[in-house]
Amino acid sequence: MNGAESLVHTLLANGVEVCFTNPGTSEMHFVAALDHIPGMRSVLALQEGVATGAADGYYRMARKPASTLLHLGPGLANGLSNLHNAKKAGSGVVNIVGEHAASHIELDAPLTSDIEGIARPVSHWVRTSPSAETVGKDAAAAVEAAMTAPGQIATLILPSDTAWNTGGTPAEGREAPAPSPFEEGALDTAAAALDGPETLLLLGGTALTEENLETAGRIAAKTGCKILSEWSNARMERGAGRVAVGRVPYPIDIALKVLEPFKRIVLVGARAPIGFFAYPGKPAVLTREGAEITTLAKAGADLGGALSALCTTLGAEQTPPAEVAEADVPEAPTGPLDLDKLAACIARAIPRDGIVVDESVTTGRAFSPATKGAAPHTWLNNCGGSIGYGLPTAIGAAVACPDRRVMALTGDGSAMYTVQALWTMAREELDITTLIFANRSYKILRGELTNVGVGNPGPRAIDMLSLDRPALDWVQMAHSMGVDAVRVTECEELEAALADGLSRKGPSLIEVVI
Amino acid sequence: MNGAESLVHTLLANGVEVCFTNPGTSEMHFVAALDHIPGMRSVLALQEGVATGAADGYYRMARKPASTLLHLGPGLANGLSNLHNAKKAGSGVVNIVGEHAASHIELDAPLTSDIEGIARPVSHWVRTSPSAETVGKDAAAAVEAAMTAPGQIATLILPSDTAWNTGGTPAEGREAPAPSPFEEGALDTAAAALDGPETLLLLGGTALTEENLETAGRIAAKTGCKILSEWSNARMERGAGRVAVGRVPYPIDIALKVLEPFKRIVLVGARAPIGFFAYPGKPAVLTREGAEITTLAKAGADLGGALSALCTTLGAEQTPPAEVAEADVPEAPTGPLDLDKLAACIARAIPRDGIVVDESVTTGRAFSPATKGAAPHTWLNNCGGSIGYGLPTAIGAAVACPDRRVMALTGDGSAMYTVQALWTMAREELDITTLIFANRSYKILRGELTNVGVGNPGPRAIDMLSLDRPALDWVQMAHSMGVDAVRVTECEELEAALADGLSRKGPSLIEVVI
């Protein structure tokens, strides 16, 4: 058995069943191994940012890692920004990166680069396997690292001779590491802190499962505290029948206002709120001065255990949860679309058990309240702020959950970053309905110019933030990669397009001109 | 004056007149400074790989660096693989990367990352400027680093408070550093080594200018030595009236055969030939065993001086150069296209002073001999092996040389990597004719499977290297980004499309189905 074969056997034995890939010469033995060892679904991407973003989406929905197979340093580099997003989301990913044979590295060939150096800023775990014999155990260690709660980026670099040499030994399956315990010593302080509307229970990570939200709802009902989530959530269960949780807003002035009332804050899987960016003359810490902040559980800890223990300490186990959303979808809007009507159309369209991948940077700020009473669904945010996360993450979610419908909501500027994702959606016939909000600008940056104190920007500055010269034609873009598409400007057109897209087999795209 | 303004003034004073950019919030003060300080051409890219690839192409043709303006670690990360290519090409690039304000970094916001760590593997020079006061002198140092021969990657990281704070002081223009001297001590050895057809003068880098090639041609005529260039050349002057130089072939077995005769090799700007990849059981060093290799000048040294001195030592100053290409274009081929007919069409179409950016990984192996006698032109190769270099590099070449025509030759797989480049071509109305060779596969990898010893690949392996499910529609792809396009399968269609594309204002695309 060669090293490449021991890799595939080890990944399969450890529950890694999907490989998002764009291989090259140095990975050909892995391609051959994937070919003749059954069990691994290989999903080809035309740019590595699609592969790594898909691995992020897969982990969020499957709660276990996929692998990526990337070509040397540049292949890894192309996937780096979506690995950054995955890292910030707490997603586990097993990157397999090919490398030249050891004897070749010292010759400094064109594709030679410092792969470990490229990997390190986005990886929790990096290792270069020295021989075919070590590939199996190193792969098992990589999966274990990736499965360490909440999920980590593990990058295993495999020189091509470790793939083609014999002596490969598959490693056996290991148990996923248990999450770390929560801060039991903080339990009484946390329970005492939550007392009325001036106190906040701030949730993040896996505190946003349906079950954990219900526990949080009981705590809120018992204590009168408010519940919020972080602005960016890797995955939140939402919709009718679930405890509805608002997000700490992105715009700094609004966030400061929302957080101003809270004198005591308890964190479960969340971090104390800070600004996404620094702005001249504005605070970066968003909580009121002197707010008492208690960390009951950090990301990666047993968040369900923390919330249950808090609930028990407060004697709220039987209290009916507060803030349970009632089924409530708006009337069908009519006529030309605006942001509120768009939000209403989306709320009406979300199917039961739908997965919404949200990269609607500016367009989507009204979506959260509007969709509170929609059919029960799962909502994914971009946690690392690097745009181009939406379409790839939708691929991963669809691969993880073939029985669920995926809606990808994205601005045009964001979608262009990893537009190659459309081709993979078509190739894999994934049930993804993509909505492109075509405002034909980096609209968020128009506001940010003002926020950082640049008043009255001139024509060249505005031009640098505009995407309308030429306008992107998303219908032709989608068709060019084998995805059906339609352009809409009216509510009725959007409703029809959503109904069609969400009922058909395979992907479709709707260009929403706003 | 704020730091951002001092940056722009310093770049302009040091001859940096173009900025390839995709800015974000942390770069808004630079956008404002670019807006109100005249002199810097800002070229917007929809993905940073386009921006950095364009900077590579710009340097090759302008012989001076452009700047890039990139958004934090992820923006730099997206540009990393084309920076790898630029580094290997010896291109100078000044990357300006925004960073959070210092006080914000410690809060670990979503977009916080180790920017220096991301920059280092592809940069010769990395610095984070600590204050508005230091931005000017650090920017001047960055340009100086970028201009150090043959050209280097300089990455200057600017926390947003260094941009918005006052105290900015522009630095004055500096002279570009002189190239290092060649190995004068090796001159006699080199002169003695070149003696008949068993000796090779191997050229790279700026040894491939028209003038330096002529000098090499005189040396060859005088000594009977052969001349070759490296496989990957950042820029080579070619065509009728110029000394024609073949490339060391990419396929390892052919390269070994071509190099087998040479007992003595003199290197001027080139490195001793090695394989692009390692293959099981094949050598990585391509020269014959015991070949005597003399390095007269490394990349970055005074290559023109080295060749002139060698020529003088050999008394060849008045010898008419060998291997001067005669004007010789093939007859117009007819009927369905094949690789030889394609090469003939391209040879006929290359306009006087045309710039050919070549990323025709498999399709283009016949182009080099076929175009030897075409109109005088400049040919650019991918030097780092990371695909997706072609379309962005064409942008940079067109921006550097607005009076010259650019032809971008690229495979479909490569073009998809940075397909967003088409939009920038349309926006800037660049005179670029793009030929997409649509073989609908990663064709090179089919061969590489065999080369690394994987015989008889199964259907899943072949599927992982195929781009035909679905086929990409390049005409719609181009249209979606505002570029006119046509699909051709016959020689006559291709000739007509080339004639049209090369005579019109602005970009066009030809999908060549092969």
Automatic annotation (TrEMBL), chains A, B:
The Thiamine pyrophosphate enzyme TPP-binding domain is annotated at 375-512
Instruction: Supply the source organism for this entry.
Output: Sulfitobacter alexandrii
The record's section on NCBIfam families has:
PRK07586.1 (NF005760)
Q: Which InterPro entries match?
A: THDP-binding, Thiamin_PyroP_enz_TPP-bd_dom, TPP-bd_CS, TPP_enz, TPP_enzyme_TPP-bd
Short name of one Pfam family for this protein? TPP_enzyme_C
> Is this entry keyworded Transferase?
yes
List the keywords (alphabetical): Thiamine pyrophosphate, Transferase
Q: Which GO terms describe its biological process?
A: small molecule metabolic process
Q: Does the keyword Transferase apply?
A: yes
What is this protein identified as?
A: Acetolactate synthase large subunit
Q: Which family does it belong to?
A: Belongs to the TPP enzyme family.
- For this protein, what is any one GO molecular function term? acetolactate synthase activity
- Domain (Thiamine pyrophosphate enzyme N-terminal TPP-binding) ranges: 1-106
PROSITE patterns noted in UniProt: TPP_ENZYMES
